[in-house]
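Researcher: Sequence recovery benchmark, item below. Answer with residues only.
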C-alpha cells in the first residue's frame, strides 16, 4: 500500500518551546521565530487573526474579560508563592454572578440525582433560580432510536428510557435560562447536548462511572499496571 504523505498540522501536545506562553517581561515580544513547524501560529496565522477580531465585539470582549478575571481570582499569592484557592463549583458561582446571571439551568444524568440536588441547593442559597432537566425527560423507549432489546442495560424484557440530551437542550432553550451547567452526561450524549444548546454553558463534571467522575485519574494511572492498557498500540 502506498504511504500517504501527511500534511503538517497543529500538534501543540508535542511542543517544548511554549512560545505562546513565554516567561518574558510585559514589554517584550514573544519569540515567534522559535515556534516549531507544527505550531498553529505558523500554520494558521490568518485564522488566529480572524478569531481575534471576534473579541472586538463588545459582548464577546466583556465575557472574555470576565472569564480571565475569574481565572485570576482562582489564585492567591502567599509567603510560599502562588497557590489555588477555589473549587470549580465556587468558581462557577462567582462567574455567574459576574455576568449578572439569575436563572441557572442544569442538564444532568439521572444517575447523579444526589449530586444535582446538592448543587441545586447550593445555587439556590446563593440567590439563583434553578431550572433542571434530567437525561430521561420524555420517557421515550430506547427502541425509538433503533437500540436492540439485547442492548439495553437492564435486559431485553425491561422498559428502558433513552437519554435525550436534545430534549434537555431544547427545554432549557425554551426556558430561556441565563447560563447552563452540564453535570455528568455520558460521552456522546454530552456532544448532542452541546450541539443543540443555544445558551452560554459550562461543565461542572463529566461522566466516568469507574473513577468517580474523575476521568483524568485514568491518564495519571496510564503508566501503572492499573491502566497500562490505555498505552497499548491499536490500528484502525
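Model:
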Amino acid at each position: 500500500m502506498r504511504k500517504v504523505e501527511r500534511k503538517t498540522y497543529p500538534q501543540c501536545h508535542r511542543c517544548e518551546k511554549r512560545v505562546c506562553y513565554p516567561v518574558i517581561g510585559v514589554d517584550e515580544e514573544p519569540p515567534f521565530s522559535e515556534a516549531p513547524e507544527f505550531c498553529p501560529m505558523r500554520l494558521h496565522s490568518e485564522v488566529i487573526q480572524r478569531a481575534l477580531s471576534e473579541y472586538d465585539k463588545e459582548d464577546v470582549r466583556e465575557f472574555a474579560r470576565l472569564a480571565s478575571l475569574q481565572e485570576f481570582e482562582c489564585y492567591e499569592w502567599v509567603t510560599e508563592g502562588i497557590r489555588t484557592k477555589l473549587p470549580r463549583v465556587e468558581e462557577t458561582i462567582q462567574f455567574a454572578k459576574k455576568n449578572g446571571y439569575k436563572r441557572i439551568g442544569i442538564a444532568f444524568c439521572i444517575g447523579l440525582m444526589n449530586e444535582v440536588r446538592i448543587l441545586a441547593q447550593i445555587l439556590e442559597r446563593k440567590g439563583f433560580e434553578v431550572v433542571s432537566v434530567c437525561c430521561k425527560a420524555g420517557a421515550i423507549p430506547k427502541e425509538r432510536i433503533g437500540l436492540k432489546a439485547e442492548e439495553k442495560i437492564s435486559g431485553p424484557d425491561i422498559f428502558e428510557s433513552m437519554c435525550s440530551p436534545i430534549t434537555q437542550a431544547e427545554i432549557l432553550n425554551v426556558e430561556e435560562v441565563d447560563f447552563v451547567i452540564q453535570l455528568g452526561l455520558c460521552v456522546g450524549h454530552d456532544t448532542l447536548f452541546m450541539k443543540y444548546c443555544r445558551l452560554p454553558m459550562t461543565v461542572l463534571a463529566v461522566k466516568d462511572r469507574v473513577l468517580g467522575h474523575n476521568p483524568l485519574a485514568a491518564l495519571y494511572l496510564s503508566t501503572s499496571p492499573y491502566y497500562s492498557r490505555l498505552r497499548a498500540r491499536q490500528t484502525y
